[in-house]
């Protein structure tokens, strides 16, 4: 067999793919508790509590702790993508909420702060900032002359179109170590839990 440049390039590609697969398998083993790994960062906390308070059932502490740690780590990996487009996480959320509402990409401020779970005072400050950046504008409410609606500008629309594409690609990358079956299980479980928590708000 002749080992020309093409063959060597294919070999390097196969080796890189094998390394990526192995890395994904190792990450999956850590997340599912399989394999001979040392566990995750929460395991040490749980071990200390089991030693100090063996009378407590600390299973919920492990679940909630892992969820909160995952949320923090996920946010750390989301922020650089937002920064590439000159925005923060909350700015992305605001523009994305308007974008997914459909044409004319216009919502009442009350709808926005309810969807984003922030106070009206926080929403007012954020709207002022986005308006100053030229990404949104406020227009009269045709159904109530005393109020205004928040609308994406052409610049804001173009920005969120690019940013959301990069954001989704980034999320796919973060979830890549997990199998489709495991992702379905996690998604179903989180949905059930979220509905229960929201029902108690």
UniProtKB/TrEMBL annotation:
Any one GO molecular-function label of the UniProt entry: DNA-binding transcription factor activity
InterPro entries registered for this protein in UniProt: HTH_MarR-typ, WH-like_DNA-bd_sf, WH_DNA-bd_sf
Keyword tags: DNA-binding, Transcription, Transcription regulation
Source organism of the structure: Pandoraea nosoerga
Full protein name: MarR family transcriptional regulator
Domain HTH marR-type, chain residue ranges per copy: 60-199
Domain of life the protein comes from: Bacteria
Residue numbers spanned by region Disordered: 1-36
Signal is among the record's keywords: no
Pfam families in the cross-refs: MarR
